[in-house]
Automatic annotation (TrEMBL):
Membrane topology designation: Multi-pass membrane protein
Localisation per UniProt entry: Cell membrane
Protein's UniProt keywords contain Transferase: no
Catalytic activity: cholate(out) + 2 Na(+)(out) = cholate(in) + 2 Na(+)(in); tauronorcholate(out) + 2 Na(+)(out) = tauronorcholate(in) + 2 Na(+)(in); taurohyocholate(out) + 2 Na(+)(out) = taurohyocholate(in) + 2 Na(+)(in); tauroursodeoxycholate(out) + 2 Na(+)(out) = tauroursodeoxycholate(in) + 2 Na(+)(in)
Annotated protein name in UniProt: Hepatic sodium/bile acid cotransporter
InterPro entries listed in its UniProt record: BilAc:Na_symport/Acr3, Bilac:Na_transpt, Na+/solute_symporter_sf
Lineage, highest ranks first: Eukaryota, Metazoa, Chordata, Craniata, Vertebrata
Keywords, in A-Z order: Cell membrane, Glycoprotein, Ion transport, Lipid transport, Membrane, Sodium, Sodium transport, Symport, Transmembrane, Transmembrane helix, Transport
Membrane spanning stretches: 38-60, 72-96, 102-124, 131-153, 165-184, 196-220, 232-254, 292-314
GO CC annotations on file: plasma membrane
Function summary: As a major transporter of conjugated bile salts from plasma into the hepatocyte, it plays a key role in the enterohepatic circulation of bile salts necessary for the solubilization and absorption of dietary fat and fat-soluble vitamins. It is strictly dependent on the extracellular presence of sodium. It exhibits broad substrate specificity and transports various bile acids, such as taurocholate, cholate, as well as non-bile acid organic compounds, such as estrone sulfate.
Main localization of the protein described in the UniProt heading: membrane
Origin species: Coregonus suidteri
Gene Ontology terms for molecular function: bile acid:sodium symporter activity
Domain of life: Eukaryota
Amino acid sequence: MNATMNQTEGQYRDSYNITPRNVTAGFQSPFSPVMDKAINGITIIILFITMVSLGCTMEISKIKAHILKPKGVAIAVVAQFGIMPLTAFSLAKIFQLGPIEAVTVLICGCCPGGNLSNIFALALKGDMNLSIVMTTCSTVLALGMMPLLLFLYCHGFNNLEKAVPYTGITIALIMTLVPCAIGIAINHRVPQYAQIIIKVGLSILLIASVAIGVMSGITIGGTVRVVLSPQLMATAALMPLTGYLLGYIMSTILKVNHQCRRTISIETGCQNIQLCSTILKVAFPPEVIGPLYLFPLIYIMFQGGEALLFIILFRCYQRFKPPAEG
């Protein structure tokens, strides 16, 4: 993947037409080449472990059952690859984001669902089978859908048609399918270890996200203000919220039960942030992406905070709602 990054470096400079007005122009990576490669390697390893833990939540029998009744699959495709990319595109236009900022937001919006959505769905007493199938389908279909959607939506911006690293993104997506398949095999062959791997994977994800964020923030220093700009902060706050709300509205229109509505809502707004971080950190040259590879960390804070708010509201409603008659 590093070779691919070097081959496309000149293409990025030409495509983005970097000028002093560009927020990442002139950005010099504070990491030495060895340190930068080490962080890339650690990011890839974290993604591998996270995707193995995601695969451990998937059961072959349940996947087959939902494939035979593909309503859940159809909902997953429309919710994940319809609502979220369009939301990312719309917010990038509304806030008039720069070229590389727009690409960053679009990549985040086009990512498949992650395993945090399964935890949130459980906390909301959602349909766990549907949650797992939606995550599974979006992860598999992302191999084709994510590059296609990025290609289509990038045409809505100037000078972005050839700037997306499709090869690097495809490699990153393949990297997610292999460990995911390993996790499925573990859950099928030795299910007693699956729950341990899930807990370890989530713990590593959370610890590593905080560690990389703190280390990068200290090293990058003042340039981190690029990620904390009002436009990007508003985008990070509104993207998951819009996904949660539109997912619930869509499921209401489809007339599914309330349990499934909560599940679809959460699955729509939750993105695979670890995959997004890996793509931004590994597939883009450091002088192009700058500190914007930290955007997923900002996103996950809003994604988790808003989901937690909905969980608290739901639990309060469950506790204080009047008992049903009879």
